[in-house]
Amino acid sequence: MRNNRLLAAPYVLWMALFVIAPIILVVVYAFTSSSGGFTFANFSHMGQYAGVFGRSFLLAAIATVVCILLGYPLAHILSRENARLQRMSMMLIMLPMWMNFLLRTYSWMSILENTGLLNRFFAAIGLFKLINAVGGALSPEWADIAYFRMINTQGAVVLGMVYNFLPFMVLPIHSVISKIDRSLIEAAQDLGAKPSGVFRRVTLPLSLPGVLSGITMVFVPSVSTFVISQLLGGGNDLLLGDLIEMQFLGSAYNPHLGSAIALVMMIIVLICMLVMNRFGEGEEQAVLM
Amino acid sequence: MEEKKLKKIIAILLSALFIIATLAGCSGGGTSGGETLKPGVNGEVNVCNWGEYIDESIFEDFEAQTGIKINYNTAASNEVLYSLLKSGGADFDVIIPSDYLISRLIDEGMIQKINFDNVPNAALIDEDYKNLEYDPTGEYSVAYMWGTVGIIYNTTMISDEITSWGSLFDPAYAGQLLMIDNPRDAFGVALEYLGYSLNTTSEKELNEAYDLLVKQNDIRQGFVMDQIYDKMEGGEAAISVYYAGDYISMYENNEDLAFVHPVEGANVFVDAMCILSDAKNKENAEAFINFMCDTDIALRNMDVTGYVSANGEAAEIYAEDLSDMEYEVLFPSDEYLDKCEVFLNLPEETLTLYNDLWIKLKT
Amino acid sequence: MLLFLYAPIFVLIVFSFNDSSSRTVWSGFTFKWYPELLTDASIMSAVYTTLLVSLLASAIATVVGTIAAIGFSSMRRQWRSPLLAVNNIPVMNADIVTGVSLCLLFVFAGQILGFRQGFVTLLIAHITFNIPYVILSVMPKIRQLDKNLVDAAQDLGCTWFGAFRRVVVPQIMPGIVNGAIIAFTLSIDDFIISYFTAGSKVFTLSMRIYAMTKKRVSPKINAISTLLFVSVLVLLVIVNVRQMRQEEKARRLARSINL
């Protein structure tokens, strides 16, 4: 099996060409200006965009936390069911994931718009009249509402993130929880622990790798998306993904600045991953179906 | 064994998919819209235009006449088109940029001179649209359509009379206002309202415009380009700014919409057809431009898009069929046009300032 | 929870039968958008492109990835760890960074070698982000492999390739299949990377849909969603039914033995 090592050679070459070289290019572009000289200007320029960085990370963090809050209980409950129900539920949860990501985000527009389905529904059941009548007595602001403004807000963007990435949180947690050795749980119960104790001391720590995996799979795409913020955010509050896209194929062409932003984003995400790996067990496995 | 079952499933699926794919490829091959992988008898031509800016049924006629297949693309705005061209991903022959982008492209050597021997129909273009400031020698472009920018609003949702750009900054319309999604037009609105030139290079003036736009943040529902059609027609927003020809097509779907030429004046634009310097199908490109200048084709394009062609004959014929309201929208009076300005290309530092302010505005 | 997950899809499907172009106002039932969709050359060719790229990319990625995984597992740790770390970069990186970096590469190389972005660059990009997943899927299986079996086969007279084919491959097959499926799914659903690497003449379905959302809406989008949803549903039902039948057989077998 000794010459097996050479089998990997073609792929190593491929990686050098198509993984390493592009990243080197990004670094080069980040440090040059359009006239070709070496410069730090792109990075100092980025100081202006601290707000964008902050907002992207904040929204992505909120989305991740919501996904954990929704996904963990779901995964836990499912892991207790019998095998057939579990498989069916997993299928049901995965099914939306297989639908095109753009289509799913797009359909939220028809639901959340001012003249969208939710608002029409509320109007049809007289919710607004009720608010106008009751709230109007309390304050003039509430007397005149004809719709809830849901789309083109940051909340809509977070909703989009949660909706699109929730399955990515549920799957790894479920996968890890269902592999927890039953006997450990039984042992804890035999030793007199209450259900909450069992959870806190056995299930939770053992399920941590799954949670970390889920966090990675939700946070990274959320921080860098531009489709969700464009469709549901209305172009009002740009996120990092929008910013980068604008510099390459959008309305403010400047690949140098774009590369600098991409580079910084990559480094920050890398640091977050490393920090999390310290807490977890450092499994490098991707989520397998 | 499970693996065998899985393999069988995959084999079945793959064959099914291949069958579907070949069927789709075959059935999709022979219809209008001209976006297939096979070139025509005499080759192909790659066009990049704006959205809703052409009558797509002319593609078949072009192919029947010349044997050239049209690969049709659209871009959202001039800035996006510029990014596409610079990013090297674009493989176009003909583009139809707006005036100011054309002068920038000429300066940067990205478009080439047209051989007018191959474009006899260029003679049909009205003198008013030849040798304009953006292309003084007239060798690089052939005018396609022109128009103005104005305010569009829904009369059932807004009962006031709108006359000025100031309405776009009026807090009374909070949450109902859409702004145009490209830097020059958006800043143009603010600059017009403040009374400055649309082509100002003064940092102070641009920053004032920026401040005004920032105040609009609370009122604005969002930035849109072609998404505006659904939003205005559906009553999702009440007031916005867009191009005159597009208003005509919106009006056909929702008669509550009204168009206003604001008193301060606006931007008047000309879009013209150009050939990229590294175009692979130069002669086909010239044939296409020639075809587009033809009066009948111009009429068909005008009917579908609502804009006015630069072809003088066609414009006259078109004007005869317009209602009074439509005529007023598309053919504003000369004294109004005097108040309007054409965009010019700006020097590098101003462009950088625009980029910076634009990003700052959106973040 | 299920309501939350499926409501948007349900809305899309229902409105694909809507008589008017509106995406929020219902005006009557009609099938007319489906034929319009199927005769829309630009969308159909995008479907074709997407399927072609996904199949090709996942096939190539599976083969190259499996071979590479075998190569990696025979390496000493000091070589293997850094290589695996590089391998994981496309997995860890946000899609947009991968897309943008490849775009830069293709533009840069294109200027020197004189080519434009198109199908080939799209394919290369897809293969690049597919292979890591294949490797991640196959390597654990290789680790579980009993090396003695390979040696035994060779002692019994197999060539190296024969041993590979008859001993190694069947044992790691679940990993290979899993990797292939993941690669295919990722390719079909990819948007961001394709957006930056396909150039202006080649479109995947996701890119077409994105372009459609920026313009006047046509319920053709809804029709696409319905068709996609139905095909995925059918797929999952088939897989589920097969598994259930397997279980039935196993159960019957167990019962007959217990008697």
Total domains of chain C: 2
Residue-averaged pLDDT of chain C: 83
Mean pLDDT of chain A: 80
Straight-line distance between termini of chain C: 43 Å
Tell me which oligomeric state these chains represent.
Answer: heterotrimer
Separation of the first and last Cα atoms of chain A: 31 Å
Short descriptors:
heterotrimer; B: 363 residues; alpha/beta; D-Maltodextrin-Binding Protein, domain 2; 2 domains; eleven-stranded mixed sheet; 17% strand; C: 259 residues; mainly alpha; MetI-like fold; flat
3D structure, described in words:
The complex is a heterotrimer of chains A (289), B (363) and C (259). Chain A has one domain: Orthogonal Bundle (MetI-like fold), CATH 1.10.3720. Chain A has 13 helices and no strands. Chain A is flat, with a radius of gyration of 24 Å. Chain A is mainly α. In chain A, α1 crosses α13 and α3 runs parallel beside α8. Chain B is of the alpha/beta class and 363 residues long. In chain B, 42% of the residues lie in helices and 17% in strands. Chain B is globular, with a radius of gyration of 23 Å. The N and C termini of chain B lie far apart (56 Å). Chain C is an all-alpha fold and 259 residues long. Chains in contact: A-B, A-C, B-C. At the B-C interface, α1 and β2 of B face α3, α5, α8 and α11 of C.
